[in-house]
Recover the amino acids of this structure.
């Protein structure tokens, strides 16, 4: 269990990192990775997630039966996790007191795009919105700043601006 943290403690935790990254920008490049394979049958991909293996499959709208995780939902979960942590960090830095928070993410995708029915229809999750309902005495101006700063500093959210590069190669047997 993590102890509560205030703005001064957060600044103290981050100060040596900020100093290091200012002195040596290469140290700020943090590698991330994820792994998946096709160990399970069907049109699925088994992802080794932090909390265990997750089998993702086709959404019902594209031919799935609903028994597998939807990668679109997983994307929203990742965005929501990042936005939630970022918002809590920003609120802490701003010295805001938030007694309780509930966050949800919503979006949609048009199955015609991914099924190749209509090339004019975008392929992808669109209209992602994150709503945070906060029990706080913060002013409207502070809440606006909190939301904007969360958008600005959410790594996963900012990453959605550029699609990933996909390569395929033969394995060395």
């Amino acid at each position: 269990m993590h102890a509560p943290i205030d703005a001064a403690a957060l600044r103290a935790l981050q100060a040596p990192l900020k100093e290091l990254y200012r002195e040596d920008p290469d140290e700020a490049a943090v590698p991330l990775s994820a792994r998946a394979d096709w160990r399970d049958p069907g049109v699925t991909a088994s992802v080794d997630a932090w909390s265990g293996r997750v089998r993702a499959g086709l959404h019902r709208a594209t031919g799935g039966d609903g028994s597998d995780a939807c990668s679109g939902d997983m994307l929203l979960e990742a965005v929501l996790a990042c936005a939630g942590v970022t918002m809590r960090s920003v609120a802490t830095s701003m010295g805001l007191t938030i007694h309780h928070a509930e966050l949800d993410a919503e979006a949609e995708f048009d199955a015609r795009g991914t099924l190749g029915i209509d090339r004019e229809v975008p392929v992808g999750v669109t209209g992602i919105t994150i709503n945070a309902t906060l029990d706080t005495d913060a002013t409207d101006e502070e809440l606006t700043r909190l939301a904007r700063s969360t958008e600005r500093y959410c790594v996963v959210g900012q990453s959605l601006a550029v699609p990933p590069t996909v390569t395929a190669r033969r394995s060395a047997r």
Q: What stands out?
A: Strands lie at 35-37, 44-49, 52-57, 98-109, 125-136. The mean pLDDT is 94. The radius of gyration is 20 Å. The first strand starts at residue 35 and ends at 37.
